[in-house]
Amino acid sequence: MKKCVLIVEDDPDIADLIKLQLLDLNCDADIALIERVLDNLLGNAFNHTKSADIITINVKKQDVKKQDVKKQSTAIQIQVQDTGCGISKKDLPKVFDRFYQAENKHRKGRHAGLGLAIVKRILELHDCRIDVISKVGKGSQFRFSLLLEKL
Fold it and tell me: How far apart are CA 25 and CA 21, in angstroms?
């Protein structure tokens, strides 16, 4: 059985946000689309790991500076990480391309190669980008941030 862990940074603001009790910050995002992003990232993590591997979801608050605005903003960073097979350096630049499928002996079932392309497009619609860090045999980490606004 795979182990999936949710880590929420030890910060009262983010803990309240996760509990939906933080009333002075707002995330302008389509919840159904962000749910699709998380579903695709977690689905990939489960499909590319073995039974002893660990999948971690890390949520934390971060301060960011938007390039087109000189003021500091606050964001929530979401990271999905696994200890699975990882992605090779040659495949990393292509993982967000439509229909691209890297060679992977751990993959289960048939897939169209659209999941990460959909993730990237949804996050682009939210003015976000997604970053990936991966090492073959060590696992992968996908990370994106959603801006929070004061109400």
Answer: 10
Which candidate, 150, 145, 151, places its Cα nearest to that of 64?
Answer: 145
Q: How confident is the model at residue 21 (pLDDT cuts 50, 70, 90)?
A: very low
The answer to whether the CB of 147 falls within 8 A of the CB of 78 is no
CATH, residue 66 = 3.30.565.10
Domain hosting 122: range is 3-150
Query: How many residues belong to the chain?
Result: 151
Identify the band that residue 22 occupies on the pLDDT scale cut at 50, 70 and 90. very low
Write 143-146 long-range contacts (CB < 8 A, 24+).
143/77, 143/78, 143/79, 143/80, 144/37, 144/77, 144/78, 145/62, 145/64, 145/75, 145/76, 145/77, 145/78, 146/27, 146/29, 146/34, 146/75, 146/76, 146/78
pTM, two decimal places = 0.78
Write out pLDDT tens, residues 101-147: 766 555 555 566 788 999 999 999 998 999 999 999 999 999 999 88
- The structural domain count of the chain equals 1
